Amino acid sequence: MKIPISVLVVIYKSNRDVLLIERADRAGFWQSVTGSLDALDEDLALAAIREVSEETGIAVDSLPKDALQNMHHQIEYEIYPEWRFRYAPGVTRNIEHWFALQVPEDTVVKLAPREHVAYEWLPYQEAARKCFSRSNGEAILKLFSAS
User: 3-class DSSP state for residue 81?
Assistant: First the structure.
């Protein structure tokens, strides 16, 4: 069963292009990297690093130490009914913690084919509009409103 605590990682380049990935289980659902903790005591930053690696093949530990930033923001949202079977009975809400990861211009993306089928680098405003989750779009806009 999935733990209802997750991370969202907005991956971006210095030119403010943002990486979006399309879900394999929902055509047209574009998002940033997301994923649940593997254990209740898993460090949030380590979960973010793991999810980035699993979903994009990007090795965060090979980037500058300050490339991954905790945005110090979390939201609580209702889990889509069609995905609740992944959680313990009665679990309907999830807490998501936001992170940002700056990557070099020449970063290679290698998707996990069971999870995602396509990716795009988009200007951040366009990426925010394209996300199927309103809060994912808000995370992108929040990242760039602070800079």
Answer: helix
User: What residues contact 54, with CB distance under 8 A and at least 6 apart?
Assistant: 35, 112, 115
Q: Do 143 and 100 touch, CB atoms closer than 8 A?
A: yes
pLDDT tens column, 24-64: 988 999 999 999 999 999 999 999 999 999 999 999 999 99
Q: Tell me: the pLDDT tens digits for 58-96?
A: 999 999 999 999 999 999 999 989 889 999 999 999 999
**Taking Cα atoms as reference points, which of 102, 140, 126 lies closest to residue 13?**
102
Rounded Cα distance between 137 and 124, Å, is: 9
pTM given for the model: 0.95
